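pasting for ref. prot 1 ->
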Amino acid sequence: MEKNFEIQSFFHHFPASVAEYCFQLWQDHPFTFVVSKTRSSKLGDYRYQSKAGHRISVNQNLNSYAFLVTYLHEVAHLLVYQQYKNKAKAHGPEWKTTFRELFEPILDEALLPPHLVQALQAYLKDPAASSCGCGPLMEVLRDFDPPSDELPLEQLPEGTWLQIKNLTLCKRNLRRSRYLCESEGASKRYLVSKHALVKPCS
């Protein structure tokens, strides 16, 4: 279920060193802030409706650094909409510039782990529509996840049986950035991101 962010819980979802900065953005550009249930299709989103106003949601299962990246990604969408309305492309140059500018005040090794700063600097040269699309950044962000028996799909050999969501699938060949995965008997086929976390079947 989704829940509105309460002010007192805001700081718990961000790295302590940059939480105040993120809170100030919320105060300077008011929006409804929602912590969403885990969504496999996206890490967060931004919406604007004339009656409801601006709304940002971020998935509840993200570690604090992934939460930070997703939060600033969505705030950048809000700022671009405020300036350009629907005249700017969703992840076009206006958004890329705004996203970089939001990170500039905190892209400092005194505030964030050095290897994360380096990964972000590389990523922000030409940020993708989703941080999931940047393998090096995703690998660094996963360093801050709690221990898990899940692995990125790309680390498993072809022919491995795995579980993702409630599905048991067999990994097949790579098609651009996604692997073809098949159910038993190849009755159903799915294209799964190579960065997706899956659980190998024992």
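and prot 2 ->
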Amino acid sequence: MASSESAVIHKGLDNIYVCESKICYIDGENSQLYYRGYSIEELTNSSNFEEVSYLLINGELPTKAQLELFKTELRNSYSIPAPIVEWMRGLPKSALPMDAIRSGVSMLSLYDANPSDNSLESNKKRSYRILGAMPALLATFSRLRRGLEPVEPKKNLSLASNFLYMLKESAPDEYDVSVMDKTMILHAEHEMNASTFSCVVTASTLSDMYSAITAGIATLKGPLHGGANEASLKFIQSVGSPEKAEEAVERVLRAKQRIMGFGHRVYKNFDPRYKILRKVAEKMVDRKPDSKQLLLTAEAVEQAALKRLSNSKIFPNVDFYSGTVFNALGVETDLFTPVFAMSRTPGWAAHALEYLEDNRLVRPKAYYTGTVGKKYVPLEERGDSAAAR
């Protein structure tokens, strides 16, 4: 055992570097986020989710020919195997969406043409396959649990457009597609967070991409990681109207509770993704009359919370507006985190692939504080006392 003086415990692995990476850079003090050197503002203004996915996984922006080939590979995976659809039919009504897509991604591995080929190139192709199948996994589950038949994907649609189409069985308008595409870009990558680390740990064992992404989904499911957008929306809905926002915020803070969607371990200033989504939400007020009250309430809650929290360096993060935006697009509340997982898939894959290029099995230590040298007592001599147990 190490002496207590020599052991340094980094609970939560705060500020511990586990690898070198060229994928993502976060400047938390100055509200900056870069994917492969490109600012998140530039990517959301000028790019699209497919191009950003290619950038994350392959390291460079694609040429026109490379992008078309990439889109073809994704679209060849839009349809999921029929046995997976039938499996989803048999799920209990209480099944959670994150559990369904986690298991669905794992099941995709059963239909891999070359399961024994664990090369980097094969795992890259698997990441394309998983990314292409994600909209169908999520939309199929959503429709089946509502008693509706799954909708066949359209291979001429983008990932964002195809997801909305398969979810609603109607062609989404261009505005909705552009908003969904932006939100997916904003959620595509965020450095070495908990779910990404899970992917890297799994990949480091020389498992496969299906296993790595499944681990990422399982980790993202936790409410401390992926569920804050749903919680933020529920709080805004509970407030009810803009004029009730200030009192609601005061009540929550008096109870020493969190305003969901505020605060971030990395950002000590405004989350740059929040700034982009806030502008999206502002424009949606007039485009989505059914959601106008909710969006205006969100703005009022935001202002009331900022008035109280900004001096404490607690600012809104991406989750504050992502829930209201998804809601305005007609996405069911418990699908928010699965949409997050669908969007984060290229980032997860990129980190797993990068780590594998210079792989070392992740094997941290735990500082032991128990005793050693205990004498084994046979079962019949232990008695029933608490001390004996």
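The longest strand covers residues 24-27.
The domain at 228-328 is CATH 1.10.230.10 (Cytochrome p450-Terp; domain 2).
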